[in-house]
Amino acid sequence: MKKFILASILIGFFSCNSGDLPKPNVIIIYADDLGYGDVSSYGLGTLQTPNIDKIANEGIRFTNGYASSATCSPSRYALMTGTYPWRNKKAKILTGANLIIDVNELTLPKMFKSMGYQTGIVGKWHLGLGDGPVNHNKYISPGPNEVGFDHSFIMADTQDRVPTVYIENGYVVNLDPDDPIEINFKGNDYGLPSGVKNPELLSMMWHHGHNASIVNGVPRIGFQRGGKSAMWSDIDMADKFLDEAKKYISSVKGEPFFLYYTLQQPHVPRTPHPRFEGSSGMGPRGDVIVEADWCIGEMYKYLENEGLIDNTIIIISSDNGPVLNDGYFDDAVEKLGDHDPFGGLRGGKYSLFEAGTRVPFITYWKGKIKPQVSNELVTQIDFLESFSSLIGSDIKSKDGIDLSDVFFRNKGQGRTEFVLEATSRTAFRQNNWVMIPPYKGSPFNESVNIEVGNSKKYLLFNLDTDTSQEYDLSNEYPEKLQEMIKRYGEITGDDLGEVEELILE
Questions:
Q1: First CA to last CA across the chain, in angstroms?
Q2: Of 502, 357, 505, nearest to 420 (Cα)?
Q3: Which single residue of 83, 252, 389, 397 could bond 404 by disulfide (Cβ 3.0 to 4.6 Å)?
Q4: Domains of the chain
Q5: Strand 257-262 and strand 25-31: pairing?
Q6: Residues 202/218, Cβ–Cβ less than 8 Å
Q7: For the chain, how many helices (H) and strands (E)?
Q8: Strand order in the sheet with 425-430
Q9: Beta bridge pairs of residue 172
């Protein structure tokens, strides 16, 4: 009997180590402008996110987890490719732009596909479409399907931009061919009402930039004529993306899958479904975070009910840090109360300071990951190489490193250095030191009320003792500063080109 038991153990051991175990499903849930202090498990704000907290408290909650950039398109590029966004001059905030990922470039979904995974994206894309003028009335290519996704259900850019339609596998959903779509970002308003000309038609007043086409009472960036039957309903968007994500999982159930589930919240315009209005007491921004938390809870329940939760890795993070007023008057500032979306960090979206790129960062794998709070330095650039290692691929990325032990096994060490980016400007973190090079321009953007990190001199901070970056130590530690400048130059080539004017979303 003892021999039989021993033999069974050995057979199980060798089978587990020979690749016979089922590959884990992977879902990356990517929020939009969610701040470090917006998730209540971090204990830094007053807004409650119980569903995210459940996943965080049963997984690994990282306190030094970073997006690659303080704005969305560059961060999404880095997550998809494992490459620093500043290496790609096209990787910047996009408005109606062409695809910024080369179709021959290595991507996260391509890696998963090479290992037998089904791959899908549902939600915000914002990495560009097409390779020239885009005709939204025909098949739109290249896009998500050409860079590795088997299935895509997306909005092209962001909720505040035209076209205000969903695109499924390259085709606009519910488009009437007798009512074709025309898009213009260069001033031709097609004679349509606009936020500038027709404030009486608005249900949400614009603050800066968002004053062109009016859709559902909300003024947008750019003008859209036609496509009436395909227009989305803003208040139903969260439900729509959740339903489409569930539908995708159902369609590939039984096979290993990778789902990139990209939420629109809490990016502007903040349009919570009526059942969430007033739920936070903080106005629409707080309400859409409550809505996003509910969506995550519903996704978790769905995975449980479908018998998938035990073998599904869930990652929750954000593309950049928070911003309150980002183009609309929506009481985000006035109703904030004691809540701190920035979590005590300096800066915010668009900023080289910590609040620009340090974001909520959670990994979960039921029964495989032990609950833990980790202070290891980790970045979204590392997802590609880490997942590649985890599932047995030998694919490497350009700038990522293998952090699979840190992400999924409660062991190992994180990064020691990282170049972060904000609107074509870069800074350097090495262990707990941060160096910000000098940049021209105003240190403060009044439209969004955020310090962007511009200074006439090098700035040096020690996060061990000064997480809020109040004290510049460049004069006190000149040798450390020179050491970091040298290493930063070795990584970047010290020639990142001319700094572009700050463009707000």
A1: 68
A2: 357
A3: 389
A4: 23-181+227-412 (3.40.720.10), 186-225 (no CATH), 418-492 (3.30.1120.10)
A5: parallel
A6: yes
A7: 9, 20
A8: 417-422, 425-430, 433-436, 459-462
A9: 167
pLDDT tens digits, one per residue of 209-250: 999 999 999 999 999 999 999 999 999 999 999 999 999 999
Buried residues in 343-380 as b, exposed as e (16+ CB within 10 A): bebbbbbbbbbbbbbbbbbbbbbbeebeeeebebbbbb
Q: Which helix (H) or strand (E) holds 316?
A: strand 312-318
Coil, strand or helix: which one is 30?
Answer: strand
Q: Which residues contact 421 (CB under 8 A, 6 or more apart)?
A: 68, 69, 70, 74, 84, 85, 86, 357, 427
Cα–Cα distance for residue pair 325/268, rounded to 1 Å: 9
Gap between the Cα atoms of 378 and 413, Å rounded: 9
Backbone torsions φ then ψ of 376, nearest 5 degrees: -65, 145
- Among residues 239, 324, 226, the alpha carbon closest in space to that of 273 is found at 239
Q: How many whole angstroms separate alpha carbon 344 and alpha carbon 347?
A: 10
Alpha helices (runs of H) in 58-170, residue ranges in sequence order: 72-81, 108-114
Tell me the residue type at 280.
S
β-bridge mates for residue 119, sequence order: 258
d(CA 194, CA 417): 47
DSSP secondary structure code for residue 499 in this structure: P
Percent of the chain beyond pLDDT 70?
94
**Side-chain-side CA neighbours of residue 79 (13 Å):** 26
DSSP state of 13: H
Give yes or no for a contact between 433 and 463, defined as CB atoms under 8 angstroms apart.
yes
CA 100 vs CA 73, 74, 96, 223, 315: distances in Å: 9, 10, 11, 22, 24
SS3 state of residue 276: helix
Look at residue 296 and give its three-state secondary structure. helix
* Structure tokens that stand for 493 in this block: 């080539």
SS3 content of the chain, % helix, strand, coil (to 5): 25, 20, 55
The dihedral sign for the CA sequence 229, 235, 236, 242? positive
The enclosing H or E element of 486 equals helix 478-492
Q: What does the DSSP assignment read for 344-357? A: T-S--TT-SSGGGT
Crossing angle of helices 283-305 and 50-57, in 10° steps, is 50
SS (H, E, C) 162-225: CCCEEEECCEECCCCCCCCCEEECCCCCCCCCECCCCHHHCCCCECCCCCCEEECCEECECEEE
C-alpha distances in Å from residue 455, one per residue of 53, 269, 458, 486, 492: 37, 31, 7, 19, 20
Instruction: Identify the pLDDT of residue 22.
Output: 83
